[in-house]
Amino acid sequence: MTTSLPLALLIVSTALAGPPAQDSVTAVLGPKAYLDGDVIEIMDITATSPRLEQGDSVTVRGRIRLDSREEAQLSLLLTQTEGDGIEETDSIQTVLVRKGQKEFTLKITIKHRGVLHLTMYDTATRKPFGGTYFGTAKQMKAISDWDVSYYLQTDKDAEGVRP
What is the 3-state secondary structure (H, E, C) of the chain? Predict the structure, then answer.
């Protein structure tokens, strides 16, 4: 009976521990592009570490103004800088937004090496049409030359050119 009590306490303490604590972190904005009238504003970022790297859980709170179309999918994603580019997406990383202004909260667990971005996607074509990269100063310096003009391309322009 003495061995079952410590095991029970371990199970209970693990269940009560909950997810890792997140603290506010300072982030730097990187490459961004928006259609006229659209914008994403990041109001607060909390994470399990200020490094915003593989293994961290991140929560982004902000506001979006959507003017260029009736609705869009807003997603918090990671562009891999190393790896195969395959990225799993959880439902807490994306939200449907309608024309006008809206506040949002999106979450991600960083599973690969890369840089975070908030991107608006057309709900019909699934093509991106605006967004911003963000992260640590070091991360943003490493991608400062990335061209995000593909956010502004129409269907008649080149197909999905990405960094």
Answer: CCCHHHHHHHHHHHHHHCCCCCEECCCEEEEEEECCCCEEEEEEEEECCCCCCCCCEEEEEEEEEEEEEEEEEEEEEEEECCCCCCCCCCHHHEEEEEEEEEEEEEEEECCCCEEEEEEEEECCCCCEEEEEEEECHHHHHHCCCCCCHHHHCCCCCCCCCCC
Domain that holds residue 104: 22-152
Q: Is position 3 within any domain?
A: no
Q: Any bridge partners for residue 100, and if so which?
A: 66
Q: What is the pLDDT of residues 28-59, one digit of tens each?
A: 999 999 999 999 999 999 999 999 999 999 99
* Per-residue pLDDT at 160 exceeds 50: no
* Region at 123 (left for phi over 0; alpha for psi -120 to 50; beta for the rest): alpha
CATH code, domain with 141: 2.60.40
Q: Both tokens of residue 42?
A: 């990041």
> What distance lies between CA 93 and its chain's CA centroid?
7
CA-based torsion, 67, 69, 74, 79: positive or negative: negative
Is residue 128 very low, low, confident or very high in pLDDT (cuts 50, 70, 90)?
very high
